[in-house]
Design a protein that fits this description.
single chain
Length: 194
């Protein structure tokens, strides 16, 4: 396949991924807004800044460097994999031990458990960052879209089911964890890098 055809195909698949995920999240947000209290969304919003900063620290540009490198070898992929994994574990324990301070700052004791559980997504996502980079480097946007949409759909079902069963804010936490797990598992099974 020529580069032009790959680029066009990539644009189509990326658009499908973007609009598909946004559409699913929009519908799920409406459903969850009927099942959950505004305060429960607010608890997740309180730790959103820590999650966003953590995600940026974990990626730190190393996975992007794999995409830009002309011919990365096994050593390059392995180095980035172990750096991401080690960094995500450190970040998890940092948030685990600072969770009481975060909860105290916001005067919300429930944030201790929420932060400690939600932070597991760093480790789960760190396990598949190299696979995602390799798929992007190969311009296999179809595979990335399938993985992304599947994880969004499954996590949405988990979140809605748990919210319906009365799990409250934990339904949002488990929805995020389920999405990370499904995405990581799919990337591990579909990528040829180990």
């Amino acid at each position: 396949m020529s580069l032009r055809k790959k680029a066009f195909s990539g644009m189509i698949w990326s658009s499908l991924q973007q609009f598909g995920n946004q559409g699913i999240r929009f519908v799920v947000s409406i459903i969850l807004a009927r099942l959950l209290l505004p305060e429960e969304f607010g608890l997740i919003g309180m730790i959103a800044i820590f999650m966003a900063i953590g995600s940026e620290l974990i990626s730190s540009g190393l996975t992007s460097s794999l995409i830009r490198t002309d011919n990365p070898d096994q050593r390059d992929y392995s180095s980035v994999f172990f750096y991401n994994l080690f960094g995500s574990i450190i970040l998890y324990f940092l948030l685990f031990f600072t969770a009481p301070y975060i909860a105290n700052f916001f005067k919300q004791p429930s944030l201790i458990e929420i932060t400690r559980l939600y932070s597991l997504t760093f480790i789960i996502s760190g396990l598949s960052a190299v696979q995602l980079a390799k798929i992007r480097k190969e311009m296999n946007f179809k595979l990335e879209t399938q993985s992304s949409l599947a994880s969004t759909v499954v996590s949405a079902m988990v979140g809605i089911l748990l919210a319906y069963r009365g799990f409250g804010v934990m339904s949002l936490v488990w929805m995020s964890i389920a999405g990370s797990i499904i995405s990581s598992v799919m990337l591990w099974f579909t990528s040829d890098w180990r």
